[in-house]
Amino acid sequence: MDNRRARTKQRIFNAYRSLLIEVGYENIAIEDILEKAPCARSTFYSHFRSADDILIEFCDRQFDHIFASEHEKEIDHDYSPYNGTFAPNQDMAHIFYHAQADQSLLRNVFNSPGSNIISKRIRERLTPFFDKLSRTEEYSIESVPPRIISIMMTESFVALIRHWLDMGCISKPEHVAHFFIKTFRSVN
């Protein structure tokens, strides 16, 4: 993608994010995005099929960053020491840091008809992570298939994100990740 197209796509993305916070998911029309971006309708549709595609890309961008093999220090957290390693505790805390940074946006989406879209995408992105985790010695449970463990972990994690956001992110991301880990480790 050339720089001009990338900048236009980013403007559309930023306009949508801003509108999610300002007016909420159910009140966003394509016209609003076009006005705020600003861009032509044909330009919008050359990047996205619908406004929901932007929501899916938002989710994908976050998880691409979180599950990347290389990290740089960020303002409120630094996971660069774990580059190239499978560090589930840090990955989970990293998810909570980004959920906290976007809590207004996520609360608006989770409490709207868009909840199904983003919850489904979060599940899709978390499933491979929890599939891998469920096959480790620490998280495997005798006579329980790893896929069942993975499903339980994925569903519980999505519910925990929603609950934590609804409660105003009152615990530190590391603590919430630790609570989750302790819950599933104690099952053994």
Automatic annotation (TrEMBL):
UniProt keywords, alphabetically: DNA-binding
InterPro entries from the UniProt entry: Homeodomain-like_sf, HTH-type_Tx_Regulator, HTH_TetR, TetR_C_Firmicutes
DNA-binding region: 29-48
Molecular function via GO: DNA binding
Record's keyword annotation contains DNA-binding: yes
Domain HTH tetR-type per the UniProt entry, residue ranges: 6-66
Protein name as annotated: TetR/AcrR family transcriptional regulator
